[in-house]
Amino acid sequence: MPPSDLARFRRLCGQFRWLAIFMVVSVGSVFALMYLVAPLALSARSDRALVPEQMIASLIWVIPAACYLFAVWAIGAAMGQLAKGRLIQPTLSSALRKVGLALGCGGVFTVFLMTNLLRVAGVTEGGYLNFDVGGMTLGMIGGALFLLGRVVDQADRLQSELDEMI
User: Fold this and answer.
1) Is the pLDDT of residue 98 over 80?
2) I want to staple 82 with a disulfide (CB 3.0 to 4.6 A). Which of 13, 21, 92, 137 is the partner?
3) Is 140 left (phi over 0), alpha (psi -120 to 50) or beta?
C-alpha cells in the first residue's frame, strides 16, 4: 500500500473512531435520560413514589442497548488502534471477538432473558420467548463474528509457525 493510501486509511480510521465515540456518548445519554433519570424526575415531581418494578423494568430494557453500544465502542477502539499504526491482524481478531460477544449477548438477552426477567419483576405477562427477528439476527451475527475472531487468531499463529520454518 502506498504511503499516501496508508495515511488516508489511518485518517479515516481516526474519523470513524470519533464517530463511534459520538454515537456511544449521545445514544448512551439518551438512554440514561429515558430509562433512568426520567422515572426518578417524574416520581420526585409528583406525589407518587417511584415503583421499584418500573425502575427494574427500565434497567432490564437498557441491557441489550448497553451491549450494542459496547459493540460500537469496541469497533471505535479498534479503529483508533489502527489509526495509531497497530497491525491489522491482532486488532481485527480482538475487535471481532469483542463485537461478536457484545452482539451475541445483546441478542440472546433480548430473545431469551428479557421477557422472563420482566415477568419475574411483575411488569408484564406473556410468553417465555420474545420472537424478535432483529435480536435473533444480531445473536447469530455476534456468534459468527466471535468465531471469525478465533479463526483470525489461529491463522496468525499458523503464519507465525510458517515464518519460523523459513
Assistant:
1) yes
2) 13
3) alpha
Cα(50)–Cα(60) distance, integer angstroms: 16
Distance CA 60, CA 138 (A): 18
Rounded CA gap, 90 and 20, in Å?
20
pLDDT in tens, 72-96: 999 999 999 999 999 888 899 999 9
**Residue 47 pLDDT level (bands cut at 50, 70, 90):** low
141, 73 Cβ separation under 8 angstroms: no
Whose CA is closest to 71, among 131, 132, 146?
A: 146
Measured between alpha carbons, how far is residue 162 from residues 94, 105, 106, 120 in Å?
A: 22, 36, 38, 54
Longest CA pairwise span in the chain (Å): 77
Q: Are 141 and 108 in contact (CB under 8 A)?
A: no
Alpha helices for the chain (secondary structure H): 3-32, 38-45, 52-83, 88-108, 114-120, 133-165
Scan for cell 515464518, then name that residue: 163
Task: Quote the CA–CA distance of 38 and 20 in Å, as a whole number.
Answer: 25
How many CA within 13 A on the CB side of residue 141? 13
